[in-house]
Write a structure and sequence with these properties.
199 residues; alpha/beta; five-stranded parallel sheet; 12% strand
């Protein structure tokens, strides 16, 4: 099965693009969902995270305080690397397990840090959602009620637009209204269906 890795910077519109593929019947495997799966309280990674960061990162209901954890790692690259080293192999295995259980012409794997971490061997093609940085910042400020400074820090920790575009097989430009994404997704959907027949 053809597996397309969907990536892009924070606020670029990955979720909107993934939703459009899903509406066309394409299975979506999401790294963020897999990350939640591998860090539930009964999983070994949870205990490692709490041991490393302390009980401050646990909510009263006993689950991880993801907002607090995100704040810590985006302000401290050493901590971010520690967490990535722990979680990325687990996330990769979880996604592979989900992909192996599918039967479809192709699937889309949403991986925000696809180009920042060790490569995912099951990805056959890279689709980048590209947006101007100013648009990314505005969207995230509205969505997450986060400060501009925090978002700029996150952007600095991610691959640059130029790097992403250089590594992409396909690019969706998200610099206008949401409906502008539809013809771009339709075109790629047809391309991927065609490619899946010859893979």
């Amino acid at each position: 099965m053809l597996v397309v890795g969907l990536t892009g910077g924070i606020g670029s519109g990955k979720s909107s693009v993934a939703r459009l593929f899903a509406e066309r019947g394409v299975p979506i495997i999401d790294a963020d969902v897999a990350a939640r799966e591998v860090t539930t309280p009964e999983k070994p990674a949870f205990a490692s995270i709490v041991k490393h960061f302390g009980n401050d990162v646990v909510l009263p209901n006993g689950t991880l305080d993801r907002a607090k954890l995100r704040h810590i790692i985006f302000n401290d690259s050493k901590q971010r690397l520690w967490l990535e080293k722990l979680l990325h192999p687990l996330i990769r295995d979880e996604m592979k397990k989900q992909i192996d259980s599918l039967s479809a012409p192709y699937a889309v794997a949403v991986i925000p840090l696809l180009l920042e971490v060790e490569f995912y061997s099951f990805i056959n093609r890279i689709l980048v959602v590209d947006a101007p940085e100013s648009a990314q910042i505005e969207r995230v400020m509205m969505r997450d009620k986060t400060s501009r400074a925090d978002i700029e820090e996150i952007l600095k920790s991610q691959a640059s637009r130029k790097d992403r575009k250089a590594k992409a097989h396909d690019i969706i430009l998200n610099d206008g209204v949401p409906d502008d994404l539809i013809p771009q997704v339709d075109k790629l959907h047809q391309l991927y269906l065609q490619m899946s027949k010859t893979k």
